[in-house]
Automatic annotation (TrEMBL):
SUPFAM superfamilies reported for this sequence: Histidine-containing phosphotransfer domain, HPT domain
Residues bearing PTM Phosphohistidine: 69
Recorded GO MF terms: protein kinase activity
Transmembrane segments: none
Record-linked Pfam families: Hpt (PF01627)
PROSITE patterns according to UniProt: HPT (PS50894)
Domain HPt, chain residue ranges per copy: 30-132
Keywords: Coiled coil, Phosphoprotein, Two-component regulatory system
Entry keyword annotation includes Transferase: no
Highest taxon, organism lineage: Bacteria
Protein name, per record: Hpt domain-containing protein
Coiled coil: 103-130
GO biological process, one term: phosphorelay signal transduction system
């Protein structure tokens, strides 16, 4: 990819990662359910990211696929865009046996996902304050 060119995982600074319309649709707009779901996401997402980090370090394609697939599932309640697509890309990397041969690319995608998950969590925290 040429320097300066956006890829499909680029997000303009002003783009919200938390899809409030999707959230209302999937959780019916129930404030307490939304807050509980976000609280569960914080812990579960961290555990799955830790699992992906360990899988990449160990060049373990199976664990990468499993953790990325699980994360994609829970991300799907809050984002069907770039975060969801990047989880899918990492899932497919594990399924296709990209490690160790394409380790550098997988590591870059994971680091991008890590940053997006942090940003998504920040948006969720802001939404929880707004809903409280």
């Amino acid at each position: 990819m040429e320097p300066g060119k956006d890829n499909c995982f680029s997000v303009p600074e002003h783009t919200a990662l938390l899809d409030r319309e999707l959230l209302d649709k999937t959780l019916g707009g129930h404030t307490s359910l939304i807050i509980k779901s976000m609280e569960m996401f914080f812990k579960t997402a961290q555990d799955l990211m830790d699992g992906m980090r360990a899988a990449i370090a160990a060049d373990n394609n199976g664990d990468l696929e499993t953790n990325a697939h699980s994360l994609k599932g829970i991300v799907g309640y809050f984002n069907q865009g770039v975060v969801h697509r990047l989880c899918a890309e990492l899932q497919f990397s594990g399924r296709d046996g990209s490690l160790p041969g394409d380790h550098a690319r997988v590591e870059r995608e994971f680091q991008r996902l890590e940053a997006l998950i942090r940003d998504l969590c920040e948006e969720m925290k802001e939404e929880m304050v707004r809903l409280a």
